[in-house]
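I hope you will forgive my troubling you with a question about protein structure. Could you please explain, in whatever detail you think fit, how the structure tokens follow from the sequence? Thank you for your consideration; the sequence and its tokens are set out here.
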Amino acid sequence: MFIKNISMLYGEDLEYIENANISIKHNRFSSDPTNEEIDCEGLLMIPGLINAHTHIGDSIGKDLSLDLSFDQSINPIFGIKKKILENSDKEHLIAFMRNAMLSMLRRGITTFADFREGGLEGIEMLRGANIFNMHIIALGRINYYFDMDQIKNDQDLPEDVKEDAKKIIEYADGLGISGANEYSNKALAFFNSIRDDKIIAIHAAESRESYQRSIDNLGISDVKRMIEYLKPDILVHMTNASKEDLKLVSNSNIVICPRANAVLGVGIPDVKSMLDNNCNIAIGTDNVMLNSPDLFREMDYLFKISRALGYPISAKEILKMVTVNAAKMFRLESGYIADNRIADAVFI
């Protein structure tokens, strides 16, 4: 297909080019013309947006936790989200996941990375819900958590749980771990040992309570434990990380979820310090039960809040977070428009 007279944001720097021509051959962008052509005068083509962190499994519980605290809402051990997932019919969960996917597509999101609860069955449900041919990065997890005494004693995972973890990471695109406060050092090191070439992502320093819980009980931040034992590819949130933690994770991949953080009242991520420490930042919308999966709203919110806090982030830099940066983070061949890149784009 030869697309002519299209304005576009081209290349890794998202350079604006007016009235350009580009081809799509074998699902990739090309500069070579083809026989079939379409005139797109008046349209703007941008890379398909990448939602770097979601929990679409809880779509069925939308708005049920708005008046609850952070732990009451989404604690993986006793939060209302856990009860909703355990007590909902599989067919209903899949139907609501489909609704969330359709909602994302309507907002220009063609790829999303989902922290999927429920072990192997959870991954199967996620992929089974995808009737829209979206690109899903499925990050699974085990249904097993430690209490703080077990963590203090550095207890190891049971052998059957280790086998479950191996099966999940083999079947999924990686692991999406709830947090360091649910696992011992030995368990974190085990997850690292089975990664192979898969992605390991983890919630980090999301709330002040969870951050302080690690310091009070273990004498060390959850971030430091992750870096030492898990060595994750991606840190999600880092909203309440200290300046020292952010220096420790310099040059790392961080996914921020600004609007979800606001809904939960856990703070505003220190994007300036992340950028100062050369972190690669992407944006996620997080739990659908809390926050609509709309990256345009995330970008608008981040643009405005950065100005209010005195460190304005340019619109282009923010757009890169949901395209170029996220593609780099998840090792994708999409994320920007250029020769031989996957032809994943949105027309506006």
